[in-house]
Amino acid sequence: MSRNVTSSAPPPSVSTFNLLPFRSVPTILTCTAAMLLAGCQKQEAANKLPVMVRTETVAIADYAPRTSLTGVIAARTLNNLSFRVGGRVAERLVDVGQHVDQGAVLARIDPQEQESDLRSAQADLDAAQAQLTQAAATFERQKTLLAQGFTTRRDYDTADQALKVAKGSVDAAQSALANAQQNLSFTELKAGAAGVITARQVEAGQVVQAAQTVFTVAEDGDRDAVFNVQETLVARTPTSPAVTITLLSDPQVRATGKVREISPAVDPTSGSIRVKVAIPDTPAGMPLGAAVIGSVGAKPAKAILLPWQALTSSAGKPAVWLVDPATKAVTTTPVEVLAYDSGPVVIAKGLVAGQSVVTAGGQLLSPGQTVEISGAAQ
User: How confident is the model at residue 35 (pLDDT cuts 50, 70, 90)?
Assistant: First the structure.
């Protein structure tokens, strides 16, 4: 016996969960649009809020920058010493860097030739003196005979002329002997003044000519600081400025100098001008060749000094933010920079005294932005 069982389960129906998104799409879009609109309004309101900045009032002042250059200490007087006679160098007694006193013998040449000339001059003098003695005796005899009437006037005149010639020969021989003695002394090269040997051009055994440079001596005394300066800096420097000289290795050693010499020509290699600064009473701590720093102030010029944070860019050119005192709105204005110093920026053109320039917070600004000043430098 079979039983037919009929299921009483309800037929499947469409789930309400699947139909809900289609009915609520307009509502969701409307809410989203409202939220975006509200966010934009809040952002716009936030943009209208003033930005806190710091400003500075523009003031025109005299700007005299100091320029510092590196130079070296050099001798004011350099002497090129040479022998006054030629010959072979027999002995060299000093070397580069050695200090010598006045009159010190620096080198000697072989004196054989000069000694020979001296002996020859002495022999000529002896012969001339012998002739003078004979001529003088002859003249005295002729003078006596003429007074007694035993000689002629012609013989007397001849004896007188021979005496005068003999005296001239003796004088010439004496001069030649003096020259020979002097030439012998010239075989020793001596220092004309105390100083330091800075260069040597010969060695023992070398043959030198008269007036050929053998040594270069930097004389003792006041020194010079020598600098290679750009031509534009020389033009901007006032006449006869005071130059502060500082030893590079020890800044505690300093002195004050004055421009002594400016080269009239520009060095074609470096494009610079050589300037020598005299240092009266040069400190002992500034030896020859020491590196020094020379500082000098340029001619004063009217300019505006602003902190470097005030500088911005507009269309690729330097500019600053100006604050309108009435509306507190900012605008950019181009400026011409005269110099970039270690701290401030030197403005030459573009600003007027009394204007308010943003010095801090400028990176948050846009044209027309209103600001709130947190502090103004007077």
Answer: low
Please say whether the dihedral angle defined by the alpha carbons of residues 149, 153, 156 and 160, taken in this order, is positive or negative.
positive
User: Taking the mean position of all CA atoms in its chain, how far away is CA 63?
Assistant: 23
Residue of 59, 66, 60 whose CA lies nearest to 299:
66
**Among 71, 67, 74, CA closest to 227:** 71
Interatomic CA distance for residues 220 and 101, integer angstroms: 10
Which sign does the torsion angle of CA 262, 265, 268, 271 carry? Answer: positive
Block residue for tokens 């609109």 = 37
- DSSP structure class, residue 6: P
Residue for token digits 């430098």?
A: 377
Question: Mean pLDDT score of the chain, rounded to an integer?
Answer: 83
Nearest CA to 335 among 366, 362, 313?
Answer: 313
Asked whether the beta carbons of 357 and 310 are under 8 A apart, the reply is yes
- Contacts with 278 (C-beta within 8 Å, 6 or more apart), sequence order: 76, 222, 224, 257, 258, 259, 260
H-helix or E-strand containing 321? Answer: strand 317-323
Q: Which element (helix H / strand E) includes 255?
A: strand 254-262
**How far, in whole angstroms, is CA 329 from its chain's centroid?**
49
